[in-house]
User: Fold Homoserine dehydrogenase from Novosphingobium aquae.
Amino acid sequence: MAEPLRIALAGLGTVGAGVIRLVEANAALIARRAGRPIQIVAISARDRSKRRSVDITPYTWEDDMVILGERPDVDVVVELVGGSDGSALACARTTIEAGKALVTANKAMIAHHGLELASKAEVAKVPLKFEAAVAGGIPVIKGLREGAAANEFERVYGILNGTCNYILSTMEDTGRDFADVLAEAQAKGYAEADPAFDIEGTDAAHKLSILAAIAFGTAVDFRSVETTGITRILAADIAQARTLGYVIRLIGMSETDTNGDGVERLFQRVQPHLVPFDHPLAHVDGATNAVVAEGNFSGRLLFQGAGAGDGPTASAVVADLIDIARGEAGPAFSVPVEELVKMEAAHTGHRRSRSYVRFLVADRPGVLAEITAAMRDAGVSIESLIQTGRADSGGEVLVSLVTHEGPESAVSEALRLLEGSASLTQPPLVMHLLGS
Amino acid sequence: MAEPLRIALAGLGTVGAGVIRLVEANAALIARRAGRPIQIVAISARDRSKRRSVDITPYTWEDDMVILGERPDVDVVVELVGGSDGSALACARTTIEAGKALVTANKAMIAHHGLELASKAEVAKVPLKFEAAVAGGIPVIKGLREGAAANEFERVYGILNGTCNYILSTMEDTGRDFADVLAEAQAKGYAEADPAFDIEGTDAAHKLSILAAIAFGTAVDFRSVETTGITRILAADIAQARTLGYVIRLIGMSETDTNGDGVERLFQRVQPHLVPFDHPLAHVDGATNAVVAEGNFSGRLLFQGAGAGDGPTASAVVADLIDIARGEAGPAFSVPVEELVKMEAAHTGHRRSRSYVRFLVADRPGVLAEITAAMRDAGVSIESLIQTGRADSGGEVLVSLVTHEGPESAVSEALRLLEGSASLTQPPLVMHLLGS
Assistant:
């Protein structure tokens, strides 16, 4: 059998421990499939003395993770530290500059610095791989970059954050409100102590920007992802959506858009959507992730699985290692960095969507007339409208409506007309409806 | 840009025409992603003068498809003729022996001769690829062979035949019977004039045997797939299943099984199953295919999409070509042929399953007692039983029951006890329940 592929691990949290467990448990099978063994030679983490779920004594300890790639006995560094900058980025840069391959699960780093790292990897002629950075154990980077590589993509979208999906589907199952379910998720370890990255949509936006770059051949543009989280969704929204035939899911959506003027622009949005019952994403529950890629020849492809967790993430990391062991290479974002198009962000006002708009209003005469007049004046056509009292809200009333398909700018205009209205007890919530 | 990858097409049916359309329509994008253009240089089919949906005049015509691979201007032959033997196999052999890569969508050929062809390809050091042979446009071969390569697979199963799934989901939606829906599917072109390969499960068995080989590292063993088609399913079965919380889907199921005696054996079965509403496969409707792979680290992965059609199949064919253009190689079945284990077929009697058993019986006293006594005598524990009259059957009565989990041999024994009973108007139908 050929020489082993020698790897170093930077970061020994749950995913790092998962990679050690996987490489040990499935060693023989990995060697058979990769054509050679994968061997962990060195490890590094912030705190050497921390209690860990795996025995790290067989591996050489290195205090400074940044220099792992400079060890002559290391072929690949696996960066599992996390964080867009800091020691993760330093480790990634040093590794590639030392002419070693880099595998990472770090979506924030790839969303912010993926282009720089991919350029460096091209110069150094080493692989840069990050399957685990998007949708955990689901091989969706490979699916887009290779499996569906023959297609022009029409849309790529999906459920990219397991914490949000767990919270939304639990709210749906139990009728409980957001804050309550979040607290439980934190207690169970399904949500971080500081959940902002997840529940405000940032994590999904990181992943979406990576998928979009691969799918559309564009430069990663995390900053232009229009991002709305799930923090304002009420149990009542979920109940209303269900009445209308929808579930609510946090969807990351990307497509290119010629915007009427023929100039191709990149549309990227993370937002809670109403997903019709008959759409495959409506059945994605709990911490599961799923990505849909619509290709001009493949039609709709769906990739679904566990979006996080040590086992699934380790599965994706080691898949990258097996690819490297087999000699698979090629540009990280499918095409060389210099061929990635720097595409302007799409304008969204002209987009034709169906929208769900929910108001919390004071329970007094004339409120409905005020809302419907604003909609009429802005040219928004209302398909359905429901007004319900809120048992728990001391006289507050919930008004939710669904519009016919029309320009999103019209809905924005209607809400502008209602700005400052004394009837509204908080700003309205807008969610779009996902087309079938 | 590097030299083009020059391909020859053998077979110009709907898929062949699809490949031509795709290579022409997405040429620039393919060249960018593959690092070099993919160029069709020669074509061949049975009848040169046949009217086709694409213009074939730009390509050199070769009367004899078997010698396409011997042309010095061809790097890869794409075999789209179909059929396990005959000119498809002759073309495949000659191509590989001439030292050229082979891409094929031919599941029957790979199921029957895949090992021989893969051995030849290893000797000749050329790629053999067949993504399009399983589940149409879904990159599931890649998903197992690469994306989930770090995992030991616990089970691999799925909906592998679009015609059957179309028929079953149409029966479900309309309440109509099998023969009626089949006739309509044939009229619409969703089912072949001779539908036997599809509806008797052979096509799904071809695909399952290929997936199992890759997943479990075993020699392809199509002949030992236990295969039951969908021809005996009644509208009444679908209605009963629904009452119990299930839909009926033709599932190809594979796993390894140590059978109590520690010897690892390969279990492969194509059979209609009752799939619980909360399983992702229960929502796979129409001609869609879906494959579930359960890995020991990845957990459950689902790959879903169009299982047939010229566009999706061409998408898979060209994905293989892009891999070849990029220099991706490696064993066709993930590991070299000599490392594939020739695993004995699993015994099934000891398998613990929940079974749905449906009887058509004469409407007279004592029949239920006869059935339940046989179940009792064979040690089968009945969880639920429904008896319903059949409006259309002249006094025939339908009795369907679901067993508790128990050895499949017990159900077989109960049916053996009932063999020859004058009460049964036709042999009972057994379907297993898919676990969640």
